[in-house]
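Troubleshooting log. The previous run stalled partway through. Resubmitting the same two chains, unchanged.
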Amino acid sequence: MTAQATDITRAPSAKGALRRRLPGSLAWHIGALALLAVILYPVVWVVGGSFKRSEDIVGSLDLFPADPIVSNYTSLTDGIADIPISTFFFNSLFLAVGSVIGILVSCSLTAYAFAKIRFAGRNLLFTLMIGTLLLPYHVLLIPQYVLFRNLDMINTYTPLLLGKYLATEAFFVFLMVQFMRNLPRELDEAARLDGCGHLRIYWSIVLPLCRPALITSAIFTFINAWNDFMGPLIYLNEPGKYTVSLGLKMFVDQEGLANYGGMIAMSLVALLPVLAFFLAFQRYLIDGMATSGLKG
Amino acid sequence: MQQGKGVERRTVLKAAGASLAVTGLGATATACGGGSGSGDGTVTIRYAWWGAEDRARRINKTIDLFEKKYPKIKVKTDFQPYPDFWKKFNTQASGGNPPDVFQNAIGFLRKYDAKNVLLDLKEQVKAGNLRMEGFRAGLDTFGEIDGKLLGVPVGSNSMALVIDKPVYARAGITPDMGWTWDDFDEAMARVRDRTGRAGDSGMYGVMYLYDLYLRQNGKAFFTEDGLGFTETDLTRWWTKAEKGVRSGLFADPKKVAQIKPKSALSAELAGSEFTWDNFTVRYTSEGKSEYGLAPIPTTDGKRTGQYLGSLMLSASKRTQHPVEVAKFIDFMVHDPEVATIMGYDRGVPATTAQYEAYRPTDPVNKAIAAYEESLVEAGVLEPITPHPNGADICEAAFLRIGEELGLGKRSVADAVEQFFNESKTALSS
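Second attempt completed without errors. Output:
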């Protein structure tokens, strides 16, 4: 509404305004492009580096090599340390998708309870849950390790996934609770009058309306799980079960041969799934914002 | 509303049940592996080490060999780069689940012995499962602490001055055994003046080098339970370092930090670097130049203060299979075929049998062998001095604070005070 109003008032002097605004807008665009170049430079450097020989990667200042080679990529097909790289990608994908499903199911259910059901101790529990956000990861690391060891779950993916299915990620619960609280109460009251129970309201009313929050959570969870290093490092004891983030670390150590070329090529390949996931879901995000805008 | 509540609870329970079912599914789909023993007497041991893929391929081959010879023992490997290895190891050790056998270094022995993590392998030696004969120059007692055998050396390394050969040639410097620190200072200036490159990459943070310098002067970095030098000693060492950085004798620490993990030497920021001799393998793979090994400068023209350093294999006190672990270590340090597979990857093999089984053919490893032999011939090798509990933390602090000094974030006095504070805390815990 406001946008329309200003357009109307400005209409008579539109040409003049354009002339007046042109230098400013030009400067703005050039500034934005310059900033983009700075931001993109590391990415371009990595792309260029992936076609360089290992010994040229650090040292030569050229962005792109004079004689590009593809052996960094082709050598990836030999695998890392006798393990095909598809193994790492499959493991990472399994963890990332498993985490997304877990977060979506468990956090939205928990959020529904906090947002829509009145029960004794709700506020206390909610505060406690938010409180877990303040616990640093390092404090939990060893107790959690001991716990999972006693449950005989070390060297499985369970320790990395279980928490996600039990709504332990307070941030996502919080995000969804805030979103659900903003949904009009009339909607679930109407549903209740039509005879819906909580599960039905959750599934048919709240979840579809929460799509933007769910998509946001899904994207963040996917990226977090894909990038997670500490968790897989601690809990997985066999290179065959390793994720991409651990695999990337296998190229270089202080002793022995260093394969920077392979590392850079693999890190680019490792970016692709995250990029694909983001691109596939971000349009739902924008779409979701549009619908939530209409609601108000 | 009162009536509604019961319904609510039931639906919530249902929903909870559904999510639990999903969890269960996830768990069963992923849970596999685990147990280390099975019905037919086959035993599985876990073996962890630090390194990269090249070492992994070699170790995998040696394990195939081992499993062929001992079909009843299966070995599961696990590896990370050095810093991640210790992160993981610390968590596992604190959680009571360390690997059965693992790569270890001298700075960690007392620390993990104090934490009751390391197995005394003496019992296994007595039982005949592990032979401690046939080791080179005193390495058989290298991993012994208070009469306990806590680590078995797999390969030995020595500190060296790794040089960029063409750069040193252009500067007209040929370091000989027995050259002094004055010669070294002069050489640094000549490299800077004649080649336009810093002489050294920043020796002031290298604990193992300062240790050698102290040993040349009748001291050592550590005593049984503390530091073996005074604030005055360190002030002198670091004042010289600060001057070196300012005058361009040592590489610009900012640039050195930027090109990490590549070394300043292979990135052509410096003409030489003090480090372990087997690092030339990596430098050759990441740099374009030719790298050689020069002796450590001396104070009196004779003593370099050097000793054979070594990576070791240690066993966990919690292992269920000490006999198998001992047999595994025995195989890895004595079997000649293992040596031909590993080469000098973890240093020059620790036993004479393995040392003779592998003769390097490539120039880099040949140079390492020649360097190690020259140390023996010159008779500069001395016994190692103790590394107390907390030595690893002191080493890291020395490197970090030395770097901060180089970057100009700390004055010499401030850096010395900080180091003494941190190491006192580390050594008293």
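Takeaways: Chain A has two domains: 19-74, 80-250. The two ends of chain A are 13 Å apart (CA to CA).
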